[in-house]
Amino acid sequence: MKTAVRKHRLTFRQVDLENIRSGKKTCTVRFSKAAAAARPGEALVLQVGSYSKPVVLESVIVKTERISLEPELHRAFDLPPDVLSLTAEREFYAKPLEPDEATTPALLEALRDSGGDLEAVLMDAAERGVNTCTAVWWTLA
User: Fold this and answer.
1) Partner of 136 at 20 to 30 A CA spacing, among 23, 26, 52, 105?
2) Which CATH number is 7-140 given?
3) Average pLDDT score, the chain
C-alpha cells in the first residue's frame, strides 16, 4: 500500500514569476496554518498568476521556520513614552522601516530571500492580529 505524499500549494502574483524562475525569490512569508504545517522534503506547488490560467511550478520545501514578529511589532507600533505632541507622533509613524532593521536573523533571511518588505509584513500581521509568521524556503524541481 502506497503512502500519500503530502503536497502543499502556495499562490503568487504574476509579477513574481520571473523572480521565482530565476531563483531570486526562494522564500515566502505567510501567516496561514497551512504554511505552518509544511515540512522540509515535502512537495510544494507554486501557482503563479490567475486562478483560471496559472503557471504551475513544482518544487520541494527546503526549510521552514516559525518566526516571532513580537520585537518588530513592538518597535514599529508602540510610541515611546516621551512622545506627547501630535507632531512627534506623526514623525514617529512616518519613519519607514528598512528590511535590515529586523532584529530576528531568521526574519532578515526570509525578507532577503523573498524580496519582502518588513513594513508590509508588519502591517499584514497587525491587520490579522497575529505576532508570528512562517517562512517557507523551496527549490524548484
Assistant:
1) 52
2) 2.30.130
3) 85
